[in-house]
Amino acid sequence: MKTRVEVMVALLVSAFILTLCAASAQAQAPPKSFDLIDWNGGKFVYGVDYYPEHWDEVQWERDAVMMQAAGINFVRLGEFAWVKMEPVEGKFDFAWLDRALKVLNVHGIKAVLGTPTASPPAWLYAKFPDIAAMDENGVRYRYGSRRNYCLHSPSFLAATRRVVSAMATHYRNHPGVIGWQIDNELGDPICYDPYCRAAFQKWCRAKYKTLEALNKAWGTIFWGHTYLAWTEIPLPWNTLGGAHNPSLALDHRRFHSDAMRDYLKLQAEILRKLSPGKAITHNDMGMYDGVDYSQLNAPLDFVAWDNYPMFGENYSDYAGTGLGHDLMRGSKNNQNFMVMEEQGGLPGWDIFWGRQAAPGLYRAWAYQAVAHGADGICYFRWRTSRYGTEQYWQGVLDQDSYPNARYQAVSQMGKELAQITGLLKGSKAVSPVALLVSPDSRWAFHIQPLVKDFDYNRQLRLYYSAFRRASVGVNVVFPQSDFTSYKVIVAPSLFVVDPALVAKLEDFVKKGGTLVLSYRSGVKDEHNVVTNQTLPGPLAEMAGIAIHDFDPQTNQEQELEDGEGERHPARIWFDILDLTTAGSIATYTKGYYAGKPGASFNQYGQGHVVYLGTELSKSESYSKLVGALAEAAGLTLGPSLPEGVELAAREKDGKRILFLLNYTDKPQTVSLGQALQNVLTGQSEPAEVSVPAFDVKVLVNP
Ligand code: GAL
Predict the structure, then answer these.
(1) At residue 7, does pLDDT exceed 50?
(2) In a domain, 10, yes or no
(3) Would you call 341 a catalytic residue per the annotation?
(4) What is the CATH number of the domain that holds 540?
(5) Which end of the chain is least crowded, N or C, by CB within 10 Å?
(6) Looking at the structure, do residues 513 and 615 belong to the same domain, yes or no?
(7) CB 689, CB 642: distance < 8 Å
(8) pLDDT tens digits for 95-111?
(9) Are residues 543 and 655 both part of a single domain?
(10) Catalytic residue among 185, 506, 541, 685
(11) Measuring from atom 5 of ligand 1, which residue has the nearest CA?
(12) Domain span at 495
């Protein structure tokens, strides 16, 4: 029997252990806000992706000297070096990485280490062939390339735990390692092997609880696809005829996205536990939509992403990249982020992709990131590789290490950022306008793309670009985001809606917000099943319209004529609107529905809903729409900008920091209405400010 004292001691010990557990549970959660500049010891995070293992050690010191001279204070290391870290199962060698870190740290350069799981060693595939994913025909991938692993393979998960734990333990107290990047660009492939099938069945069971509920939600009565056992549920693999139940397919997309998040979480938890106090991130892919970034990024301290503007051919079209930045920022509640891979040279693998950009453009693109809320820029990569698949993917330096024009541009920016770090610190990109991105709708359109040329991302870009041309910043929101601070929410083709989202949007409009919807909104419920309400389904009342007929694009030309008699060419899809409480703002001019409304405006509560039943072919038409919206919603538009010129702002304590970016090869002039101070030169700029070709001005009100 225990004495009273023993019982007291036991109670105290267990209370102590409970407190410890609570503290470590707290330490496991990412912080509510994160300041990248504080994290990097007060310096703007300015870096390069560096692969010391690709180069002779004698080169490391020379590299570090050149980096320091360019203002580089940060590197990302190690992300594909699993075989070098664990050459033999369970035997680790970090000596080479320690030596590289030492050289870099001496030159004031801190590091984020990539966990190397994107590139498992050949010996791991040889020992456990089932770490490789299986394609939709049931064939397993084999060793080679990278990121072709199965997210549910027990052998792969065990190997992941082992290597991540070893790294975290080894670098736990290393002052030169300030954080972790988990894996690399989580995304494809989707794996169709038995592990993933069993995991999907488990996921479905957790979601629906009973098979009756699943069968009802998915409408499995169609084609007799009713399931009588959980183990019967297939993956949307290759079948003769191809078409799977769209409800199953949507849940499978969600499942795959959750699986990536869970894999990331698995690593994040090990890192938080074994190397507390170091920040954790991942390198996302911007507009890539195989994953819901608003979920994936939740376990991270801050968002980082890989920004490659040169995927477009038209280098002066900045909107796609801007939207990428804003979506990434929006995926974690508009916290400032960093670019983990910023374009540092011409891209290419087997061939060069694109044409060379003027050296100044690389700097302008990096400034664009800063303008949109980046507090860190890290160029991919320091130097072009001599080996492997990416011999044609230029780094800042070429293989000969000559301090070329790109290096000069990077160095110039390094100096400038050091100069303006204090000004930037704590400032954020803010906006009264939000673009609602619905991962469910995006996936549902992948599953059933509607018509040949439909593109959800293009819809986003069309509206986004129109606001940006009018110098209005845009935040990206997701269905679970807070909508309350916005004046305008644009939700293009909001195809899949659930009652919670409908209620949030109604509330937003009733309280005075302006909501813009476009064609094919409110068509599907959260199970990807078509509503039996009149379209736009649960959004019809707030839009004040009823759609009893529509016309998918069949190569015919169509136009909308607005109230001023101006005609706007339209394409892709034509919703023919009946007005219930809304007024018409534009009517079709052709075909059997000529004269019928194609766009409407409805007062609902204190706010308004605009519905555009088609896609307009010309950017000017969207600009006109934005002008009308600004009037309705009380938005102030900025100066009009020449093509290829962007104006973006960050704000701090009510003061704005303006970034005027010229992506064109000619000087451009913009009228800003007042003289401002150029913080890069210290000089005053006239109200009519001119920016040289491929150059940037950072301006404040003195
Ligand atoms: C990125 C990737 C890098 C590198 C780069 C160039 O997507 O994260 O590791 O491969 O592309 O191909």
Answers:
(1) no
(2) no
(3) yes
(4) 3.40.50.880
(5) N
(6) yes
(7) no
(8) 999 999 999 999 999 99
(9) no
(10) 185
(11) 380
(12) 433-633
